[in-house]
Amino acid sequence: MTVTSHEWGRVEDDGTVYVRTGEGERSVGQYPEGTADEALRFYTDRFAALETEVGLLEQRVRANKLSPDEATTTVKTVRAQVAGANAVGDLQGLIGRLDSLGPVIAGQRQARKAERAKAAAESKTQKEALVAEAEKLATSSDWRNGVNRMRELLDTWKALPRIDKASDDELWRRFSTARTTYTKARKAHFAGQQEKREGARVVKERLAKQAEALASSTDWGPTAGAYRDLMRDWKAAGPAPRDLDDELWKRFRGAQDQFFNARDAENAKLDEEFAANAEVKVGLLAEAEALVPVTDLEAAKRAFRDIAEKWDAAGKVPRDQMKDLEARIRKVEQAIRGLEDEKWRRSDPEKSARADDMVGKLQAAIEDIETQLAAARAKGDQKLVSSLEENLTSRRAFLEMARRASDEFSA
């Protein structure tokens, strides 16, 4: 007797289990030691496990958890397992579900291809921008910041996905060439700088020795001038290697300070000695400034000459007072001299004669114009009358100025 207890399979009396497929029945195994129900349950459980596996695979594929190639391989493997499975159930239905994943995978493959194309296009654009910036840096002289920026550009390049081989190789060639060009130029620059610093070291060592040789000089004026020349040469020499530059500067500045401190100390002694001279000149200034404003020019001149003689005889004063005292005595001198010059200007016979001559000539010209104007009016020549009147007004104005000038010379 044959026992049938499942829509997708049956069990023979001998315990042989069959599964129904679209191509007919096929044996999936024997279960001789149990009942028919137990045999069917055993093989339907196997189908349930397969169905669970297919369901999980569907979820992973539709959720895009696998790459298209991984998904295709896995579906193919599971399909083969289902097609030859020793299980009872809708095996053809499972195969259909697996086959329905093909278009899904194909769509995902196409989407990934589009994403890769987009990523490649973006990567190419970014790499072209990196190349352009690197080539610009290669022609610059930004040695401090440029090297860091070149390093950043390289790190960014490495993080970008590759593009088609021909384009990637060409862009890399340009990028690498720019980096090499910049690196060589930077090394050449710093080599040149080092050479210049070494030359500056030689010059500054010589200048430091010269400064030290002058440090004990008491020939204040010429030595101070020599130090100014040495300082000019020091600045023109440029920087030496940093560790030596500071040391050489300390030597140079130390020698300079030694000389100028000694000079300042000597000047301080002289200033102390000259303090009494300054007191004398302050008293003479009081006398001189009392002469201004000048009321009697000749008396003021005599008094100032006497003050000037005493001023010269008084001698030197402290340096911090010299400028102020000299400015005050010069101001009195200029006031007297200015008044004397003004007096001479007013009494200059040549200028007085020229002024008188100008008055005479203008009066004669005015009389001539007045005669012409009377004649023009008599004739009724209005155009000529207007012209002569304008000329007469101008000449009279000049005559007034000439008379004032003549009066000043005769005052």
Describe this structure in words.
The mean pLDDT is 86. The protein has helices at residues 36-62, 68-83, 91-99, 101-138, 143-159, 165-214, 220-237, 242-289, 297-314, 319-347, 349-379, 382-410; strands spanning 3-6, 9-11, 16-21, 24-30. The chain contains 12 helices and 4 strands; from the N terminus they run ββββαααααααααααα. It is mainly alpha-helical and 411 residues long. The protein has 5 domains: 3-99, no CATH class; 116-194, no CATH class; 198-258, no CATH class; 270-347, no CATH class; 349-410. Helix content is 80%, strand content 5%. The termini are far apart. Helix 4 (101-138) packs parallel to helix 6 (165-214) and helix 6 (165-214) packs antiparallel against helix 7. The chain has a 4-stranded antiparallel β-sheet with strand order 1-2-3-4, with helices on one face.
Instruction: Tell how many strands the DSSP assignment holds.
Output: 4
Query: H/E order of the elements?
Result: EEEEHHHHHHHHHHHH
Number of helices: 12
Structural class: mainly alpha
Largest sheet properties: 4 strands, antiparallel
The figure for the number of domains is 5
Task: Specify Rg, calculated over alpha carbons.
Answer: 58 Å
Percentage beta strand: under 5%
How far apart, in Å, are the first and last alpha carbons? 169 Å
- Residue-averaged pLDDT, rounded? 86
